[in-house]
Amino acid sequence: MKIVDVVMIGSIAYDSVESPAGKIVEGLGGSATFAGVSACRLNQRLDAGLSIGAVGVIGKDFLESDIERLESQGMDLSGVERSDDLTFRWVARYGADFGDVETLDTHVNCIIGYSPVVPSEWKNASILLLANMAPSLQLAVLEQMHDDVIVLADSMEKWIVENLDEVKHVFSRTDVLVVNEIEAESLTGISEPKLAAVGLLNLIKENGIVIVKLGAQGALALIEGEIIQISAVPNCTPADPTGCGDSFIGTLAAHFAANIKNNLTPYLKLRESMVDATVAASLALEGFSIQAIEAAGITEYARRAALVDSIV
């Protein structure tokens, strides 16, 4: 088993999603799927030579063709266990404006009782991405890594409401926190995103970075007292918002790892990293499952990045 640059913990799932743009049944999904594929696509574009490994669990019914699909993008699945139970499944419907999602069914399946194990060769990775998953599982992975690893963390409203103490424990060991504006307000009680970002700094490690995703308004980062703000990719045609945030944070993780591999400061050119992250999120938005992320070529990524850069 080879050493990896990025280790991520997250879900690998089958999603059935309906939206005004159509529907998909049993599409490849999960936070590790979106984050991992997006990280791998950035690695390909930068020709960075990164190795990106996922820690997670799949069920006995998870298709070999889907394993091959993820591996073909460059994901190392050596840290993914196969359970005797079924694969995690999520069924949902998006409303007319794509902003509201109704969860119709959730089958946790193989995640019940799952205890993540980080391969020993991976414990010295430079980047740990705690993709959206139960905070207890995020902590279980975090505690297996070396002390100097740079930790990026994501969460969701469900965990903030139901497991706030565990969420805060994760955040207290986090270097780069990425949340959306609703989560930022839930955690701080502050509705204004820039002010909420200041409040979130108190929850993470000293000298950390807070990034607040603003949906169609882009994203902002607070780093060393400076606000960096970018726009979203304009004129997107939504299909399925599932995985947008995962794609965003996965791209960031790969950017930071590429900097480290080149002996550069991890957060060098943070704005550029955020632009690439919002491009990945826009691709997740415009396709069901990971279809649009897989299909987009270097030219399309560059076109979208240029659009974001053109908006002041």
Write a structural description:
The protein has eleven helices and 13 strands. The chain has 312 residues and is α/β, with parallel strands linked by helices. The chain has one domain: UDP-N-acetylmuramoyl-L-alanine:D-glutamate ligase (3-Layer(aba) Sandwich). Strands 5-4-1-8-9-10-11-12-13 form a nine-stranded mixed beta sheet, sandwiched between helices. β4 (52-58), α2 (64-73) and β5 (75-82) form a beta-alpha-beta unit. α6 crosses α7 and α9 (270-286) packs across α11. The mean pLDDT is 97.
CATH superfamily: Ribokinase
Largest sheet: 9 strands, mixed
Termini separation: 46 Å
Question: Helical stretch count?
Answer: 11
Approximate helicity band: 25-40%
String of helices and strands: EEEHEHEEEEHEHHEHHEEEHHHH
Write down the CATH topology: UDP-N-acetylmuramoyl-L-alanine:D-glutamate ligase
In short:
The protein is α/β, with parallel strands linked by helices and 312 residues long.
